[in-house]
Design brief:
six-stranded mixed beta sheet, alpha/beta, Rossmann fold, 300 residues, three-stranded mixed beta sheet
């Protein structure tokens, strides 16, 4: 708490096209693993809130799904969630990829943000992978985007934490006076079963081919304490076709076994207890267009 007893708090929406490093950046600011990280596009589907708390401030980061033109019920819901969260935010952090430079997808998002009623801050991520010339070109291209107001541009590397402190300080400066929304020490608003499902999905994405990210979802069907210090979890990996099911299961079941082992370790680290994880793979055709299924999966 500050000397005057006043605190600042607010919400900052993290926007950007798929696979620019939004999830890694959110995790770096919060200091804990809030959003799953993958090199596959469209990893984030839900607007995940990560909470960073200082002595007299609290910053709630909303890690938005990668903005893109809607093409099915899933991406339509993702896009609607993006628009709602931006409307309710106190600021917007627009993330670009220094390696790839500014492209049509970034300009599409910049156009969406043109009428933003809140300040827009730009983070040019992955500068650790670029030389000085490429970094300078990416920063200039970011500065040239037609964004509203006086836009600050920050070169950062979420992976190495380079440049993160000045970015965080600037985001905190945007926060209005107000009470904390979450208890100190709480770093996410996701419930336990949702975090477990996302950790399993992260391992599926890490081990499968390019066509899988859009077609895979994970649903935790049960999560019970078998005995003190041991949690039994039953989860289902949902895919859309038999061929995708075969990919996830793998030859002699080796793929799903590897997914399960890696996910179990990540979940044990997350929950702080021993975990027994049972994974099944189920075909649910066209689940991305099934509104009731999307409701059950908690994708708003």
């Amino acid at each position: 708490m500050s000397a005057g007893g006043r605190t600042r708090s607010g919400f900052v929406a993290v926007a950007g096209r798929p696979n620019v490093g939004k999830s890694t950046l959110t995790n770096a600011i919060v200091g804990a693993k809030v959003a799953i990280v993958s090199d596959k596009p469209q990893t984030t589907r839900r607007a995940i809130r990560g909470v960073a708390t200082g002595a007299d401030w609290q910053l709630v980061l909303v890690d938005l799904p990668g903005v893109q033109r809607p093409r099915d019920a899933l991406t339509e819901r993702m896009q609607r969630r993006v628009e709602r969260e931006l409307a309710d935010a106190d600021g917007c952090l627009f993330v670009l990829n220094a390696e790839q430079g500014v492209g049509p997808g970034d300009r599409f998002i910049a156009a969406l943000l043109t009428g933003s009623p809140v300040p827009v801050v730009v983070a040019v991520n992955k500068v650790d992978r670029c030389d000085r010339a490429r970094t300078a070109a990416a920063l200039q291209a970011a500065a040239d985007l037609p964004l509203p107001g006086e836009v600050e541009v920050f070169p950062v590397s979420a992976r190495t934490s380079s440049g993160m402190r000045p970015l965080l300080d600037h985001l905190v400066s945007l926060l209005p006076p107000g009470p904390f929304y979450f208890e100190a020490g709480q770093w996410s608003d996701q419930d336990e079963s949702m975090r477990v499902a996302e950790l399993v999905r992260e391992q599926v994405l890490a081990r499968t081919r390019e066509e899988m990210p859009h077609a895979v979802e994970v649903q935790v069907e049960s999560m019970q304490e078998a005995r003190p210090g041991l949690v039994r979890i039953e989860a289902v990996v949902l895919v859309e076709t038999e061929s995708q099911k075969a990919i996830v299961i793998g030859a002699r079941g080796q793929m799903v076994k590897g997914i399960g082992m890696a996910a179990r370790k990540a979940i044990e680290l997350e929950l702080g207890v021993q975990v027994h994880l049972e994974l099944r793979v189920r075909v649910r055709r066209h689940w991305r267009a099934d509104e009731r299924m999307l409701d059950r999966l908690g994708i708003e």
